[in-house]
Write a structure and sequence with these properties.
Elements: H1 6-24, H2 48-64, H3 74-80, E1 88-92, H4 100-103, E2 111-115, H5 123-136, E3 140-146, H6 150-161, H7 169-175, H8 177-186, H9 191-208, H10 214-219, E4 223-229, E5 236-240
Parallel strand pairs: 1-2, 1-3, 3-4
Antiparallel strand pairs: 4-5
Helix pairs in contact: 6-7, 8-9
Length: 244
């Protein structure tokens, strides 16, 4: 980000940080915050490990079909109408078969969700990912790739053949070029699948080490997890960064 703009950005975020800190002072040792009147019966996780456990438990329910559909009623809508405090941020693909709120069995106000073709990242997307951890203490970021990703396949073929994609689709191919190069170097029977996984791990590593999120990761208040969704089974596989 432009260093000339940083003081203004910090000033804008300062009041948000203060509000988030006040909201989290009553957190219990179990890593969850107290439940407000009319809230979901399950407390909001406030540590990376607790947030990660909540998401993976939700995915297990998705796989088994034993869904709870939490936080999806008029009471929840009323509760979050004036203020939100999601426990996780998910950067996922635009693919219609990979809706984060469903595959993690979550509901209204639980997740910040960013979706781009092949989890392609630019400064606007990075800023959107930073928003939760930097303004409301969101303790978990998940970069979620998936099986048979059409965006990754199109980018792979474009880069392999040297044929630009039409319109702004070319920007996706360019954003995924590091993953393409890693996949080519790795070899393997299914280079598109390898590229899709590489895109997750590269993006998660970049976010984990960026100048604004790295301090939060270092002090243990944030985890950035790379994960991969199976269209066949519905299961989320962790590739990197799972909090202990």
């Amino acid at each position: 980000m432009d260093p000339a703009g940083r003081p203004g950005r910090r000033a804008v975020l300062a009041s948000a940080f203060a509000g988030a800190a006040a909201a989290l002072t009553a957190c219990s040792a179990s890593g969850t915050a107290p439940v407000a009147a009319g809230a979901s019966p399950t407390a909001r996780p406030v540590t990376p490990a607790a947030a990660f456990a909540r998401l993976m438990a939700g995915n297990a329910r998705w796989v088994s079909g034993d869904l709870e559909h939490p936080d999806r009623d008029p009471d929840r809508r009323q509760l979050v109408a004036q203020q939100q405090q999601p426990f996780g941020s998910v950067l996922a693909c635009i693919d219609s078969r990979v809706p984060p709120e469903l595959i993690f069995d979550t509901g209204l106000g639980d997740l910040y969700v960013m979706r781009t073709g092949g989890e392609a990242v630019d400064p606007v997307v990075t800023g959107s990912v930073e928003y939760g951890p930097m303004t409301s203490g969101t303790p978990l970021v998940v970069v979620l790739g998936h099986q048979r990703c059409g965006a990754v396949q199109a980018a792979y073929e474009s880069l392999r053949d040297g044929k630009p994609l039409p319109g702004n689709l070319q920007a996706i191919a360019e954003a995924l070029e590091p993953a393409y190069r890693q996949a080519v170097a790795s070899g393997g029977a299914d280079p598109v699948e390898t590229m899709a996984r590489a895109q997750v791990t590269i993006t998660a590593a970049d976010l984990r080490s960026n100048q604004d999120l790295a301090p939060l990761v270092k002090k243990g208040s944030l985890a950035v997890v790379g994960a991969y969704y199976s269209l066949d089974s519905g299961k989320v596989e962790v590739l990197s960064g799972a909090p202990s």
